[in-house]
């Protein structure tokens, strides 16, 4: 599998506008940080494979720039693969998230007793546990008392949640994403973690290619607020009676809207996990 070079696009926005910009950007591949010299502004950095389309990014952000009366000065820099991998080894130490012990292949120490180890390295798909939305989903999985038999990881990215579910519940899992690169990376990670016999990786636009394996006892959907709302009806239909859905990739101020969209199709909120500005929702379907 050919790895495209990594690029970083960075720009500055007013501090009060950070949430608005995060809402329209891909939550899994963007980071926000305060300017230590000018606290009235924050920086946003997007990491992606392949040289970005700056014209498309400007067009996407144009309404926000006008609304906040600000300009867009983009800083585009390539991220050398050698530097990236060295940085991962340095800044991606093993991390505990609930019972899960996530580590890269550069870690030589054995898994701690009682942990559920997940081996993940930097790859072409995001979602390796370092983002708050992925952390929220892992914590949600860690709290589930009912053991599901059929699990769907929708928008699987690197396959982290699918691997966690397969190891925790010994369930049949479908890992699906509309990005072929993500599916390829997820399949590789599934094999490296020894759960290929229980996890199938599929390219799917929403539920289009995964309905046949349902209904699911557990759906993990770490996506974004708007597509989660748009798919609420399909989520309810593909969730088994009494089943649980974990919804993430949304900001705390978007939670009420996402809950309402799913409540209208018979789901109720059971738990809400906050982590910084991000929130993870756990909802269940009536029996």
- Relative helix content: 25-40%
- Just name the CATH architecture of the largest domain: 3-Layer(aba) Sandwich
Rounded radius of gyration (Å): 19 Å
Low-pLDDT runs of 5+ residues are: none
Structural class designation:
alpha/beta
Cα shape? globular
Strand order of the largest sheet: 10-9-8-11-12-14-13
CATH superfamily name of the largest domain?
Vaccinia Virus protein VP39
The CATH C-level class name of the largest domain: Alpha Beta
* Span between termini: 44 Å
Q: How many strands, what sense, and barrel or not for the largest sheet?
A: 7 strands, mixed
* Total discrete domains: 2
Q: Could you explain the architecture of this structure?
A:
This protein has 287 residues and is of the alpha/beta class. The chain has two domains: 6-79, Alpha-Beta Plaits (2-Layer Sandwich), CATH 3.30.70; 128-285, Vaccinia Virus protein VP39 (Rossmann fold, 3-Layer(aba) Sandwich), CATH 3.40.50. 31% of the residues lie in helices and 32% in strands. The strands form three sheets. The protein has a seven-stranded mixed beta sheet, with helices on both faces. Strands 2-3-1-4 form a four-stranded antiparallel beta sheet. Helix 4 runs parallel beside helix 5. The chain is globular and about 50 Å long. The relative contact order is 0.12.
Please summarize what this structure is.
The protein is 31% helix and 32% strand. With 287 residues, it is of the alpha/beta class. Helix 4 packs parallel to helix 5.
Helix-strand layout with pairing:
Elements: E1 6-14, H1 18-24, E2 30-34, E3 41-49, H2 54-67, E4 75-79, H3 81-91, E5 95-97, E6 100-103, E7 116-119, H4 132-143, E8 150-154, H5 160-169, E9 172-177, H6 180-192, E10 199-203, E11 216-222, H7 225-230, H8 232-238, E12 239-251, H9 255-263, E13 267-275, E14 278-285
Parallel strand pairs: 6-7, 8-9, 8-11, 9-10, 11-12
Antiparallel strand pairs: 1-3, 1-4, 2-3, 5-6, 12-14, 13-14
Helix pairs in contact: 4-5
